[in-house]
Amino acid sequence: HSITNFITVHRESVFACAADLSDSRPLRVALTTSISFDAVWDQLSCLLEGHELHVVSTEVLSDIGLLATWLDAHDVDFLELTPTHMAAAVSEGLFDNGRRTPALLVVGGEAVPDSLWEWLGSLGEGTRSFSFYGPTECTVYQVFAEPRSTPRPILGGPTFNMRVFVLDDGLEPVAPGVTGELYVTGAGLARGYLNRPALTAERFVACPFGAPGERMYRTGDV
């Protein structure tokens, strides 16, 4: 159920907009993430939609010059990197000298610095960019933002069938601008931790804003 919801979100929110920029031909997606990292589903799911998956070697991924040559050779449409890696790539000229920028650039896994957010937001109409956020317990990502929509970094809004709340210690919503903890609920929520009932009870708590029995995940992020 959770992975089905994720794949639907990715199809409608990400691959669809990239397809619009590539004349609806199959997208060329770069596999840049370790198979042990949940974000790999951002890229692997392209195969379910009939797109192409191009595997980037560790050697190429760690050298911006080699990566630039590889992107040109494979004419990649979808590139996802951590903000740290993307910022380094931009500063070292990955998209300079008239090189084609992929139709879709995605960052996730850590906070996005102001300078990178500004650069992503300044890209022309031929490229869309997204910032993804989400703990593994809620199936890859549940919140996303498009840098061109706001001048400073934000988490953004929830994906389809997901809800997020910023709450105080009493599980009451905080006022705008007040620090609180982020909670996530919805179709992507996991059942809990396998064979770890105490930790499950601590992190997956009753949702006071949903139907009886609905739970939400306490992310620990403020």
Keywords:
222 residues; 11 strands; Luciferase, domain 3; Rossmann fold; alpha/beta; 7 helices
Overall description:
The relative contact order is 0.12. The mean pLDDT is 92. α5 (83-91) links the parallel β3 and β4. This protein folds into two domains: 1-159, 3-Layer(aba) Sandwich (Rossmann fold); 163-220, Luciferase, domain 3 (Roll), CATH 2.30.38. It has helices spanning 2-21, 40-44, 58-61, 64-74, 83-91, 114-121, 197-203; strands at residues 28-31, 52-55, 78-81, 104-108, 128-133, 143-145, 157-158, 162-167, 181-186, 204-206, 215-218. A five-stranded mixed β-sheet has the order 3-4-5-6-7. Strands 8-9-11-10 form a four-stranded antiparallel β-sheet. A two-stranded parallel ribbon has the order 1-2. With 222 residues, the chain is of the alpha/beta class. The longest helix is centred in the N-terminal third of the chain and has 20 residues, at 2-21. The protein is globular and about 55 Å long. GO terms for molecular function: phosphopantetheine binding. InterPro entries: AMP-dep_synth/lig_dom (IPR000873), ANL_N_sf (IPR042099). One of its GO terms (biological process) is secondary metabolite biosynthetic process.
Largest sheet: 5 strands, mixed
**Strands in their spatial order, largest beta sheet:** 3-4-5-6-7
Topology, number of strands: 11
Low-confidence stretches: none
Architecture per CATH nomenclature, i.e. the level-2 architecture of the largest domain: 3-Layer(aba) Sandwich
Oligomeric state, counting identical vs distinct chains: single chain
Total domain modules: 2
**Radius of gyration from the alpha-carbon trace, in angstroms:** 18 Å
Number of helices: 7
CATH fold call of the largest domain: Rossmann fold
**Could you state the order of secondary-structure elements as H and E?**
HEHEHHEHEHEEEEEHEE
Protein name: NRPS
Domain AMP-dependent synthetase/ligase: 15-194
Organism: Streptomyces sp. BA3-1
Pfam families: AMP-binding
